[in-house]
Amino acid sequence: MKIAIVSPYSIGPARGNITTVRRISRYMRQLGAEVIELPVDICSYAEMQQIVQGFTPDIIHGFHATYCGRTASKLAAEAGIPSAVTITGSDINDPKLSKHPDTIEAMHAASAIICFDQIAADKVTASFPAAKPQTEIIAQGVEQLPVLNKYDFSIDQDAFVLLLPAALRPVKQVEFPIVALADIAKRHHELRLIVAGGVIDQGYAEQVALLLKKTPFAEWLGEVPREQMGDLYTRADVVLNCSVYEEMPNSLLEAMALGRPVLAADITGNHTLVKHGQTGLLYNGKGDFCCKVKALYADADMRQKLGNCARSYVFEHCSAQVEAEQHLQLYRRLIEAHQPG
Length: 341
What we know:
48% of the residues lie in helices and 16% in strands. Strand 10 (238-241), helix 12 and strand 11 form a beta-alpha-beta unit. It folds into 2 domains: 2-141 and 319-338, Rossmann fold; 160-317, Rossmann fold, CATH 3.40.50.2000. The protein has 16 helices and 12 strands. The chain is α/β, with parallel strands linked by helices.
């Protein structure tokens, strides 16, 4: 089988979409498929047309309805083959994108609309009722990052580390824990907040930098190479997610696969992974966040239990190989259904 993937990003700071596309592509290749990636940030539409004509894929798959779905469906229509689109987060959660003409066209044109969980599928069908027959659920997979025990990131051995792995853009709410933890940090000098991620929104990054100047307990490491992230996750006592919206974020998957306890914003996109009190903790607002940070700080047994349950959950439900197999099974159905007669 030959698959062309239209991806939203290929260069710049690490993003969930980059991680997802590269993981799925790699595992599908291991299962015998031929896969090419067509990143919209470096490929013009005319260049994609030429590549598709030479590669002759059986299906074209766009990751992110707004940025890639319309392009994927147009290329597929020109080639006379089916198309799929994966809902990755902002395309269904950000009103500016979910109502964008490109999103609407993508949802109507796709042979299949793939969501990571039932919660996202329900959002899709609520906004696009006609898309219900095309909506499929394939859970995100995860690859356990290597732990090299080579990088200490100059973090004091006695520090209690809260890690926020997030690129600097408003949806990640990086400012939230910086502000929320200020009072706790005054009483607990060993508490450290570590932010790791590249700059996507320069203006927002400058605002965060100003906050960090006033908060000596918090530090931004910038973009951490992927091969070092396993060491950073395992150094963390708790891994945070503070986003306005998400759809099964890779950062939580990676942390949980390494047995780290997670504390995440109580938003629908986190609910599939974080079962409150079982695979992690959810918080609502500053007061609740601070209470749960204190509880995690005080209870090492709770942290261990949550981390172990988190690891077990993602190993059972988030296999990268199963994710790739389910994509290939779906592609086969779509290709067969698209055949004349």
